[in-house]
Amino acid sequence: MEIYHKDGTFPRYCDAFRKSLDDNRFNEFCQLSSNEERFRFVSGLRSIVDELQLKREFNGKGMEQAVALKTLGNKAFQAERWNEALVFYNKCYLSTPKENVQEKSIILANRSAALYHLEKYDLALRDMQRALAHHYPNQMMYKLTERKARCYLAKKDYEKALECFKATVTALDDSNLPLERRQKLDRDAQIMINLLPKTIELEKKGKKKKADPATAKVPDHFLEKALWFDETEDEGRFARTSSDLKPNTILLLERPHVSALLEDYSLDHCTHCFKRVSVPIACPLCADVVFCSDECEAKANATYHRYECGFLHILWSSGASITCHMALRMITQKSEEYFMKLKPELAGLTNEQIDKLPVDDYRKVYKLVTHESMRSPEDFFQRTLMATLLNACLTLGGYGSCPEEQHFIGGLLVHNLQLLQFNAHEVSEMIRETPDDIGKSTFIGGGLYPTLALFNHSCDPGVTRYYRGNQVCVRTVKNILADSMVAENYGPLFTQVRRDERRATLLNQYRFTCQCLPCMKNWPLFTEMDPNVIRFRCDGGKICSNVLIIPAAVNDFMVKCTECGEHTNIMKGLKSLQDTDMLFKSATRLHASGEYVTALRKYVEMMETMSEVLVPPYRDYHLCQQGLRGCMLEFGNRYTKTVAKK
C-alpha cells in the first residue's frame, strides 16, 4: 500500500518541497538515524499548516438543505414510497446541524414511521428512543407512543405493547388534535388495553421462547490451539501448526488494532465497525461519517473521531492513502499521555511480552516488520513529510500540548506509515449488481490485524480470509500437515499469475523473493494444467514423496514407483476421482442456489478425497479450492444492489 495517490494536493506539495531542498540540506536529512529526528528536522523547515492553508471545517450540514430533504421525504411518505422516504429522511438527518435538537427529534420520528412501514421494527424503536433523547415535542408524543405500541405488537412483545398503549392514552391529553380525532385514537388504544392482558396470559401458559441461534454473539478473538508462531532468520515470524488441519477449519477470528474506511464507503458503512448501514446514526458535528449504533458512535467520538472530525476532507483531498488514515488513527484512538508512558519500553519489547498483549495495545503492533534498513532516503522523506500533514491535523484538533510530545508522536507516525506498508490488509465486501450476479470482492477499507500480520505468504496458500464488518475470519482451504507452515496469500496466486511476475510483484511490494513450492517448482497456470494427466500420490506413504504422473486413459491396475518400489492401486484412485466428480456437480448446484453451508460440506468431502490420492497442481483440486473460497466469502460482508422482485 502506497502512502498517496497522484491526484491530490500532497503529491504536488511533496514534489515542490523536495525540489526546494539543496543537496546539503537533503544530505543532513539522510544522516538522521531515528524517525523522531527525521520528523523534527522536516517539520522545522516549513509550516505545512500555512502552506496548505489547513483548517478544521465542518461541512455538509445546514437547515436549508435539511428542510428541503425533509419535504421530499414527507412527499414520498404520503405517496407510500417507504424506501424513497427513508433515503430522504436519512439525508435530512445527516444534514441537520447539532444545535437544531428538536428538529432532529422530529426527523428521527419521521424516519421511524418509514421504518415501521418497512417492517424494520427494531430500527424504528431505536429511532423513537433517539427522538425522545432529542426532546421530541410533548404535544406530538402520542405519535411515538402509539407507533412504539404497534412495533411491539408486530414483535409479539405484548407486555411492552400494553405499556405503550397506556402511555398513548396519557400522551393524548397533551396533544393539539381535534376532539374527534383524539377520541378515536383513545378508543383504539383502549381496545388494545382491554385485549392485551388476555393475550399476555395465554402467552405465559405457552412454551418458553427458545434462544435464536442467529443472535449468538461471535467472539471478538479466537486462535486455533494448534497454531503457534515460529521464527527463523530467513522467514521471520510465521504461523505453524502442531497438528494436522482439515479444510474448512477456522484458525483465526480477530478484530483490528486499527481500521479505516475508504471515502467512497464512509456514508454507507459504519466508520467504527464497517457494518453496512441502511439507517445511519450521524456524527453531531460533521457529515463525513455514519455509525450503525449508539455504541459505535459513542466509542468513536470518545476517541479517534473527536480529533479526526472536521479534518477528513483534508486527508481525502490530499490524496493520502488509506494507510495514512490508519497511521493517524493508530494515534488518535489513544491519548498522548498513553503514548508518553509507553515511550521508555517500546525499544525493548520481546515476542513473549507482545503475544500476551490485547489487540488494542499499541505495543502489540509496534515491532511488526518495517524493513527500515532497506528504505531509501527519498522514501523516508516522503513518509516523514506525510507525517507532518497527519500531525498538523492532530495539532489543529487539540491533540498534544508541547513540542516534545509532538516530535515523539510525529516519529511514531513515521513508524506507523512504515509498518502499515507491509502488515495492513485490505478489508473487502462481496458486492453484486443483482442476486444472480457472481459478485466482485470490493476493497472498502484497511485494517491492521496483529496476529494475521504474522502469517507468511505462499502462492498456493493454505487459508483464505473474509470479513464480517471489520473482523477478519481465516479458514483453511486444504489439508495442512502437522509441523507445516500455515501460509496466506499477499496477492498473486500461482494459478493466475506466472512465477516471474509474482516474484517481481512481491519483491517490489514486500521486499522478498518468494520461495514457496509453486515458485520453486514453477507450477503451471491453471489454464496450462493438462487435463489428460493425473498426478497420483505414491502409496509408499511418508517414506516416499514421489509423484506418479499417469495418463488419464491408463489401463493398468497397479503402477510401480520408480523411487521406493511400492505399487500404487491406480484403479482405486480413479474410482475416488469419479466420486469427487459427482460431489463437485452437487456442490456447484448447491452453491449456485445459495445453500452455502451444505455446498461447503460437499467441497470439503471432495477436497479430502482428492488429497488422499492426488498431488497438486491438478485442475480438479484447484477448482475445488476455488469453490471452497467462494462459499466462505458468502459468510462475510456482502451486498446486493438490486433485490429480486417477488
From TrEMBL:
A single GO molecular-function term is:
methyltransferase activity
Keyword S-adenosyl-L-methionine listed: yes
Pfam (any one): zf-MYND
What CDD domains does UniProt report for this protein, alphabetically? SET_SMYD4
Q: Does the keyword ATP-binding apply?
A: no
Question: Which keywords, in A-to-Z order, does the entry hold?
Answer: Metal-binding, Methyltransferase, S-adenosyl-L-methionine, Transferase, Zinc, Zinc-finger
InterPro entries xref list: SET-MYND_domain_protein (IPR052097), SET_dom_sf (IPR046341), SMYD4_SET (IPR044421), TPR-like_helical_dom_sf (IPR011990), TPR_rpt (IPR019734), Znf_MYND (IPR002893)
Instruction: List this protein's GO terms for biological process.
Output: compound eye photoreceptor development; methylation
Can you supply one Gene Ontology CC term for this chain's record?
cytoplasm
- List, alphabetically, the SUPFAM superfamilies matched: HIT/MYND zinc finger-like, SET domain, TPR-like
State the SMART domains in the record: TPR
The residue ranges of the MYND-type domain are 270-309
PANTHER family named among the record's database cross-references: SET AND MYND DOMAIN-CONTAINING PROTEIN 4
Q: What is this protein called?
A: MYND-type domain-containing protein
Query: What organism is the protein native to?
Result: Anopheles minimus
* Taxonomic placement: Eukaryota, Metazoa, Ecdysozoa, Arthropoda, Hexapoda
